Amino acid sequence: MSVEPKSNLQSSQGFLQDLKKLGYQRNLSEESYCNFNQPLTQDILLWLASQFPRDDKFDFIVKNTYKDIENIQETEKIELFGTTCRFLSEQTKEKIDPVGVFKADISAVRELSKVTRYLLKSMDISTLQEEHADFHFDGAAEMRSLITDITGKSVEIFTLLDSERDLQEECLKALNRPLNVQLVENLIKTEIETAKEEMETVENERNNVSETEKILDASIERKTSELQRIQQRLAAVRKIRPAYMDDLERIEAELRECQEQYVSKFRSLLFFKNQMEERERNEKEIMNERLNIARRLADRFNEQEYLELADKFDNEEKAERDENLESEKFSNGRNSKAPYTIGSMTGEGINDSDSLDVDSDLSIDENDLSSDDTSDMASELERQIKKGPPSIRPKSGKLPEDDF
Prior knowledge:
Residues 185-304 form a coiled coil. The chain is mainly alpha-helical. Helix 1 packs across helix 6 (106-123) and helix 11 (245-336) packs antiparallel against helix 12 (352-387). Among the domains are: 3-133; 194-236; 252-324 and 375-393. It has helices at 3-22, 38-50, 56-65, 74-92, 98-103, 106-123, 125-131, 140-176, 181-207, 209-239, 245-336, 352-387. It is built from 12 helices and no strands. Helices cover 78% and strands 0% of the residues.
């Protein structure tokens, strides 16, 4: 099923290319014959007929019978197509179907392609274009007219030479045949009788012209009277106003008002809807901007608190280190400046080991206290770092200008 449209398109393309080679002036598309296109077919048919030398009979039919070719009736159009196709068949010696041409579709392309191929074969345009593809000349119109004249003359010579073979045999038979006078007389008498009969018929028709004119005048008057009567009846019918026309006009007016109200409300609804969407979008953008600004401020405040906490931790650690150094210096100085004693400085019942135990306990407690404070501060700092920046909201609604 898909092969046939492809072949139809190829045949249409080949036909249009042949028309361009023959010098057809109109620009045609490849889809010109996809549908019914009878005006274009009529124009191409008459143009192809004009490429051949036409006799007086064909010119008389085309020019006098069809004075307004573009506005002819259907019967006249059928007769024009048939006459032109018969003329082209006589010139090309090929059978051209008038019905296929009248269809004005791909079948018309197939029939008219026979004429274009015949003209191209006689003119030998394809070979000439291949040999002189880059040759340009000024007298293209004159050369085209000369080519058409040569083609017409060659067609005439071809037809005469083709008919000479049959006529030569008939001439030889007529010359060799003995002349029969009686037969010639009978033929002449029959021709005279036929001529007389034709003259009598023409004379009778000429005499009956007046009667036919009267009959036609009577029929014309009858038709005109019928036309006037029908026109009067039409005018009377138009003047009559139906009973429901008032209600119909009122309902039409109400319907028109309802339509206007509906259109105005619909437009207003669309406008307000667009305004709401735009406002929501703007509010969302403003909210996002405020959140970004608050996030930046929180990050900044968080960083400041972290730095302050780190400075505080460093200061406390330094102070604790200084205190430890002071205490060590004090203890070392006391031990070095103690006087030399003889015997025991303790009271009765107290050993030196007991006094040493007390001193060692005090020193251990001091060391434990300093290590506990240091570990507590370190754990607090680690908790602050792990906790991350808290969400700090500015107290006032106004934001610093440098954040924008």
